[in-house]
């Protein structure tokens, strides 16, 4: 694959969540970028993040070859060796960024972002409560306009219901799902529920959601076909989200809209519990107890914070990125 002239390269393991974080930051920077997936084979994947990349991957005749980008954003342990190798062969000309703790220590990268609860520390490390995402203002405006046109005949309020799934901490079972749906019925009144399932939502949960939506003024996105998620976030008057998903609650908190968090038992004293206490302290979220409250708060947006910090670091190096 020929490397294009984009000034920003994104290297991830191909996981959807990793791609979202990398693209979210690049889009917030307003820079042209190119996304690459790496899936190193044994023994190279065993050696990550400290080991080298496979011979021939990086260099004059490799998959990753000059002209080098000005900025490289990597996500995850398997991508870290590629960023380190490119930094070395470019004689440090490429400004390297790791999103998520690369487990290499801070000196292996020019800049690292990590969630607040991660242990990595250093003068080049930025930590935020929430994670980077792609729900930027331009995308929400564009997708929101489409969603509002599509939903125009349905009654308000539009209530976005974001359902995750069990994660080994929360005891989020079918009984808890039924409790959530009963509370949502109580809260939504005569409005419209826009329900979304996540990649972790068990098939039994999705089937229960399908049955529930069929008898109400509601819609369900199960994960296939055009994804209305960004448009529904933009159109929503209120948001209900299950506590098991840090990413979904973080994305919701970036909107400035009331975010009602449904808590299942089991998380007491866990990192999820600490996260939700911290997020609630910002004013973004409140526990969901069967009613929709209205309140305002300053949006909690890690993507903007990361992009602003990167602009400052790049300016110190005299690096200017070409706009998209």
Features:
single chain; 324 residues; alpha/beta; Rossmann fold; six-stranded parallel β-sheet; 10 helices; 12 strands; elongated
- Straight-line N-to-C gap: 21 Å
Quaternary assembly: single chain
Helix content: 25-40%
CATH architecture of the largest domain: 3-Layer(aba) Sandwich
Spatial shape: elongated
Quick one: CATH class of the largest domain? Alpha Beta
Please tell me the overall pLDDT.
94
Total number of helices:
10
Biggest β-sheet: strands ordered side by side in the sheet: 2-1-3-4-5-6
- Structural class computed from helices and strand pairing: alpha/beta
User: In terms of per-residue confidence, which ranges show pLDDT below 50 for 5 or more consecutive residues?
Assistant: none
The CATH superfamily of the largest domain bears the name Glycogen Phosphorylase B
């Amino acid at each position: 694959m020929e490397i294009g002239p984009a000034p920003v390269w994104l290297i991830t393991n191909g996981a959807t969540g990793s791609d979202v974080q990398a693209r979210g930051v690049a889009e917030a920077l307003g820079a042209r970028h190119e996304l690459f997936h790496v899936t190193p084979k044994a023994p190279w994947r065993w050696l990550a993040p400290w080991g080298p990349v496979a011979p021939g991957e990086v260099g004059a005749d490799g998959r990753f070859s000059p002209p080098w980008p000005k900025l490289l954003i990597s996500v995850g342990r398997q991508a870290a060796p590629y960023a380190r190798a490119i930094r070395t062969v470019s004689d440090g000309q490429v400004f390297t960024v790791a999103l998520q703790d690369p487990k290499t220590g801070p000196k292996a990268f020019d800049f690292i972002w990590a969630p607040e609860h991660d242990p990595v520390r250093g003068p080049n490390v930025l930590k935020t409560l929430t994670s980077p995402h792609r729900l930027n203002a331009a995308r929400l405006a564009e997708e929101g306009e489409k969603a509002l046109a599509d939903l125009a005949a349905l009654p308000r309020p539009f209530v976005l219901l974001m359902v995750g799934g069990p994660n080994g901490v929360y005891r989020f079972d079918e009984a808890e799902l039924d409790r959530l749906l009963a509370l949502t019925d109580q809260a939504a009144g005569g409005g419209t529920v826009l329900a979304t399932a996540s990649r972790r939502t068990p098939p039994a949960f999705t089937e229960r959601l399908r049955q529930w939506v069929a008898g109400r003024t509601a819609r369900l996105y199960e994960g296939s076909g055009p994804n209305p998620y960004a448009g529904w976030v933009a159109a929503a008057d209120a948001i209900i989200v299950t506590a098991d998903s840090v990413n979904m609650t973080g994305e919701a908190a970036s909107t400035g809209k009331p975010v009602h968090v449904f808590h299942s038992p089991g998380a007491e004293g866990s990192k999820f519990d600490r996260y939700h206490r911290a997020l609630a302290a910002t004013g973004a979220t409140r526990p969901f107890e069967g009613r929709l409250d209205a309140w305002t708060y300053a949006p909690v947006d890690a993507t903007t914070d990361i992009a602003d910090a990167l602009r400052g670091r790049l300016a110190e190096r005299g690096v200017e990125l070409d706009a998209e």
